[in-house]
Specification:
Elements (H helix, E strand, L loop, with lengths): L7 H8 L6 E5 L4 E2 L6 E5 L2 H9 L3 H10 L2 E3 L10 H10 L6 H13 L14 H10 L6 H12 L3 H5 L20 H15 L7 E5 L5 H8 L3 E6 L2 H13 L6 E5 L10 E7 L10 H10 L1 E13 L6 E2 L2 H7 L4 E2 L2 H10 L3 E7 L1 H17 L1 H8 L1 H19 L4 E8 L27
Length: 438
């Protein structure tokens, strides 16, 4: 008996338990899902379906979205935030078909020319495959860390300037009021870190994974001798140019350097803002031991990183690992605190800023939306779509407690176990927003 291929709609119906959270309309003319669904999804080509079929889950959906093979009506490419509630429902409604149906589905996908594995133009980086073949399961050598940081951060300074704000800061801001601007919130974040580290004129400061050097310049403007290091050459060159423009060369420096190669020591304060995600949980002990050894007795270290709501450890998902943060790894704040305590620090304070990160990501997406045409011109539509989807999904994740953002403050004790002048009580100024009047 001749084989009759299934339509795309029939394939979807076999894979998703009703009610389907989307209305699907496919290139072969078939459609399924409720007419009144909140979102109408168009599968525009066999290539888009092939991305989903050959990499089910977030990786395949992301590839189809980036290339226009999957289109969601009413969602701007720079901020497709609204779809993530429905995506959560979709992931919960997948069902495994029986073996006979699975064979029919694969034969039908072949007939639809939807089983070809192909790269995503402009976005699929050859470095990912080269690193995998070269290193296998080995992670976090200096060479590999330099490769993966370059993959993410050397997309182009001009592109990042479009949405990160005037100081080009790619980490969670700290909003002093609900209606504060992104630039005000990033300045307030610098203030918070500066005050937590008790930095003052004449002190020395090390900022590891310093990005474009915003905190380094903030500290130098206040008389602190500040050194930043980054594994992105584009960031280091940009930061050094800004330091020169502001006349801060005597106090500020950003080096293209692995933090493990910093030779100076005896710092008064160390900040690590958004670096720990790249370190690997198994390397935390060596990481914090190294940093405690770079501080003077009584010196303070502020670690600011994305965390999970609990203390499991996992590598980031397929989409994030392939396209956003290769080798990224998260765990909970309890693990961060334990490793700091076990490796040279008394932990003084920890707090969760996940809602501030949701606001930060919202503002980045809105800036990208306002500058969409220029972003596409700079990096191509596929890469611009990638960043819009990643940032909108991250905003949703922070709002729904999928991920959190913790700042953890520690002190290197003196030999007699004293804090060497560090006060007993909190000395920095929190934002008054949301606090009851005294």
């Amino acid at each position: 008996m001749a084989f009759t291929p299934m339509t795309v709609a029939e394939i979807i119906d076999e894979l998703i338990v009703p009610p389907n959270p989307f209305r699907w309309e496919a290139f072969d003319g078939s459609a399924t899902g409720p007419e009144d669904a909140k979102y109408r999804v168009q599968l525009t080509s066999p290539e888009g379906l092939a991305y989903i079929a050959t990499a089910p889950g977030d990786l395949g959906l992301a590839r189809a979205w980036m290339t226009g093979g999957l289109v969601v009506e009413g969602e701007h490419l720079a901020h497709p935030y609204g779809i993530f509630d429905s995506l959560r429902d979709l992931y919960g409604q997948f069902q495994a078909p029986n073996p006979a149906t699975l064979v029919r589905i694969y034969r039908s996908l072949g007939a639809l020319d939807a089983l070809k594995v192909q790269p995503v133009p402009e976005v699929e980086r050859q470095g990912w495959l080269e690193r995998t073949l070269r290193d296998g399961l080995t992670r976090h050598s200096k060479e590999r860390d330099a490769d993966v940081i370059s993959d993410h951060y050397d997309v182009g300074n001009d592109f990042y300037e479009l949405f990160l704000g005037k100081e080009v800061t790619y980490t969670c801001a700290y909003y002093p009021t609900e209606d504060a601007t992104l630039d005000e919130a990033q300045e307030n974040k610098y203030r918070l870190v500066f005050e937590k580290l008790r930095l003052k004129e004449g002190d020395t400061h090390l900022d590891i994974g310093c990005g474009w050097g915003g905190l380094v310049r903030y500290a130098a403007r206040r008389g602190v001798k500040s050194l930043g290091v980054t594994l992105s050459k584009e960031q280091a060159d940009w930061a050094q140019e800004r330091i020169k423009e502001e006349g801060l060369e005597d106090l500020a420096e950003v080096r293209f350097l692995d933090y493990r190669d910093v030779e100076e020591g005896d710092f008064d304060g160390i900040s690590s803002i958004g670096l720990l995600e790249h370190i690997g949980v198994d390397n935390y002990a060596a990481h914090f031991d190294f940093l405690s050894g770079k501080l003077r007795p009584g010196g303070l270290m502020l670690n600011h990183c994305i965390t999970y709501p609990d203390n499991h450890k996992t590598k980031k998902g397929g989409f994030i690992d392939r396209y956003i943060f290769p080798d990224g790894e998260l765990t909970g704040s309890g693990t961060v605190i334990r490793e700091m305590q076990d490796n040279g620090f008394e932990v003084l304070h920890a707090e969760n800023l996940r809602f501030d990160y949701a606001r930060t990501l919202r503002d980045w997406c809105l800036n990208l939306k306002d500058n969409w045409e220029e972003a596409v011109e700079l990096v191509g539509e596929n890469t611009a779509r990638l960043w819009g989807m990643y940032m909108a999904g991250s905003q949703w994740g922070f709002e729904h407690d999928v991920v959190q953002l913790h700042q953890v403050l520690g002190v290197r004790l003196a030999e007699d176990k004293s804090r060497a002048g560090v006060p007993e009580r909190r000395w920095w100024n929190d934002s008054p927003w949301g606090l009851a009047d005294n």
